[in-house]
Write a structure and sequence with these properties.
Strand order of the largest sheet: 1-16-15-14-2-5-6
Largest sheet: 7 strands, parallel
Bound molecules: magnesium ion
Structural class: alpha/beta
Radius of gyration: 19 Å
Order of helices and strands: EEEEHEHEHEHEEHEEEHEHEHEHE
Number of helices: 9
CATH superfamily of the largest domain: HAD superfamily/HAD-like
CATH class of the largest domain: Alpha Beta
Amino acid sequence: MSGGTPTSGQVDRRFDGYVFDLDGTLYLGDALLPGAAETVLALRAMGSRTVFLTNKPLERPSDYAAKLTRLGIPTQASEVVSSTDALVRYLRRNAPDARLYPVAEPLLWDILREAGWELTEDPARIDVVVVSFDRTFDYGKLQIAFDAVRAGARIVATNPDAFCPMPGGALPDCAAMLAAIEASTGARAEAIVGKPSPHMAAMLLDRLALVAERTLLVGDRLATDMRMAIEAGMVSALVLTGATSRADVEHSPIRPCYLLESVADLVPRVDR
Ligand SMILES: [Mg+2]
């Protein structure tokens, strides 16, 4: 996927838009990575637009914006795109009048209700089962989803992640709930809208109001961040501050445009 050997070292040009992955790229847990704030502020000062990307559907964009702001990167909620934004965009286009059953925490019920959808727990009335990272998942929810899908409901999921890294361990993520529903029904989700899907890439470009070629996406994972950027036609930059090592890159068919020690290498030098 994509061609050639990634360019190592400093990125030599400025892009009109930058998409930043969060964990492993700008911060680890609750601490900014070195140079993260200076980089975002320098790129903004050069006139570039910035958005921040997360697959995690457990908090609102405003919560991520508040965290970034607290850590030293002043951020508006409108600059954060999560898998729930990609979900709303997808459902507006593909299920605008559907009755939904979210296998999800109360936050996603609220988000979908605020966006205007009717939510129901009656399997006979459910048009789309929406599957998400759900720490309140139980057999009763599985039964409702199962009955609905067997009666013809479609399945849409927020994100493909199997687990979510946490300090000291990890939590089973959306893929676990989705697997239970798919295994019991034999049906498959028609879309999983978080990264690396094209639905998430389209959401990011909508938010930046830019075409892919003028946008650089920086992240720490080959199979999600880099794959999505390459497939969407964005310029891709992998940082080695998170989940991926230089050796992983050498052994992967996914070839990002740039391979960087950290996000600080994104700021082009203004030599003359
Ligand atoms: Mg990451």
